[in-house]
Fold this sequence. Notes:
Elements: H1 6-24, H2 36-48, E1 50-54, H3 85-93, H4 106-115, E2 120-126, H5 158-168, E3 172-178, H6 207-227, E4 233-237, H7 244-247, H8 265-275, E5 280-283, E6 310-314, H9 330-342, E7 346-351, H10 361-377, E8 391-392, E9 395-399, E10 404-410, E11 421-424, E12 435-437, E13 443-449, E14 452-456, H11 459-463, E15 470-476
Parallel strand pairs: 1-2, 1-7, 2-3, 3-4, 4-5, 6-7
Antiparallel strand pairs: 8-9, 9-10, 10-15, 11-14, 12-13, 12-15, 13-14
Helix pairs in contact: 4-5, 4-10, 6-8, 9-10
Amino acid sequence: MKLAGPALSLAAGIVLAFSLVAGSAQAPDADRETDPLVLAKLARWQDWKFGLMMHWGPYSQWGVVESWSICSEDEPWCRRSMADYVEYKKAYEALPRTFNPTKFDPDAWAAAAKAAGMRYVVMTTKHHDGFTMYDTKQTDYRITGPDVPFRAHPKADVFRAVLDAFRAQGFGTGAYFSKPDWHHPDFWAPDWATPDRNVNYSIDRYPERWQRFRDFTYRQIEEIVSGYGPLDILWLDGGWVRPAPMVEIAPGHFVKNAKNMDIDMPRIAAMARGHQPGVLVVDRTVTGRYENYRTPEQEIPEKPLPYAWETCMTMGGSWSYNPDDRYKPARRLVHLLVDIVSKGGNFLLNIGPSPEGEFAPDALDRLRAIGAWMKVNEEAIYGTRPIAPYKEAKTCFTSLPDGTVHAIYLADEDETAPPAKIMLTSIAPAAGTAVRMLGVRETVRWEKVGKGALLTVPPGAVAKPPCRYAWVFKFKAAPSAKASGS
C-alpha cells in the first residue's frame, strides 16, 4: 500500500481495475474454495461489515509513506527527501534504532474502534520494507530487535499486544503480511542494484536464492498463525509476487517488469489452515483459491460484485502516519460505509498511529462521530445483504433475511435534518406494514406511489433528528423487492 492523494488515486485505480478484471471470470472448479470451515468464516466475516486497519512502523517517525520511498521506481509514491538513494536507504533502515512509541496503548485503540462500531481488525505484521512488528525469530530487523529501544517495553511485541486488546473487546482478528521483503538478501540481493519492486536477480539462474526466500516467508507466516492465538484473516499484500500463469493476466503497470515469483501459496495456505482451521486467506489481486475475498483499494465498485469483497481505504490521505494529514469528514466516512455495505461489501478503514503510539485527535473525533451514528443505526449495517436497486438518488438500501429493508437517506453537507418527505421510487413497503425511522418512536406515514412510496417524516424527527449524516427508515418490503447474495 502506498501514499494517498492524486498519486495513490492512480495507483488505486490500477489495483481496483486489476482485481475486478481478474475476479470477473468464474474461477475453474479446481480454484473454488470448498472448505466448509472457510466458507462459514467468510459468511461471518461478511456480517461484520466494518473493520480497522493499521499501518505502523518506524517509518512513522518521518511521517513518510510506508516502505515505498526505498523503492527506486520512478513513481510519485516512491519519492524521497534525499537526492542520494544509498544514503536515504541507509538512514531509513536505521529508523528502528530511534523507534520508541512509549504511549502505545492498544486497549485505547480497541476501545475507540469498538465505540465506532468496528467488528474486526487487520494489523500490519510486516510491510514491504521487511521490518516486523512482532517478535519474529527469523531476523533481527524486528520491533524486539537488539537495537530497538522499545524492545524492553512490556508490550514490545506489538502484534501480540494489539490482538490481545482487540480480542478482549470481541473483535475478529487479521494479520497483514507483505510477501515481498526488501530487507531480505534473497529478495533484494546485495550483489546487484535494486531497480524496482521485484527480486533483483534471475530466479531461473539462482533458484536456491528464491527457495531460501520462500522458506523464510513460510517460517515467518507460520510464526504468526501458530504463536498468536486464534486468527480469522491472513491478509497478504504485494500482489506482484505471483506465479507465472497469474503474471500473464496482470496489467503491466501493476506488475512491473513481471517475473515468475511463485511463493508457493498451496504450501502456505495448507500450513496456515493446519494451525488455524478455516482461516481466511487473502492473497490480494491473485485471483483463485487463495483469495477468499477481493480487496479494492481506495475505491468502491459501482455496483455489487459476484463475490465477497472489502474496500480498504485510508481515513486521511496516507496509509501511514502523516502529521499534516487531512482526515475525511465524518459525514463522508458514514456515507462511504453505507455505500459499501449497500453493495454487499465490507469497509476496512485505515488509521496510521503516530510515532509515539497514539491515534491523532482528528482520527479519534471521526471514530466517535461514526460511533454516534452507528449507535442509532447499526441494524441497517451488520448482517445485511444488498437489495436492488442498491441506491437511488440519495438513498441506499440494505436488507435482512427476514425481508426487512432499510432505506438510508444520505444527507447533503448543509442538510442537518431530514426533509419532511422522502420519495422511494423503486422499493415500497408491503401493504399494511408500518415504517419506522431508527431512533424515533413515532411511526412514519407512507403512501404507495407507482412502484415506490412517499414517506412522511415525523415532525419531531425533523425538528430534532436522532443522528447526523444519514437517516434510516425500516420496513418489510413488498414481495417484488429481491435481496441478492454477495
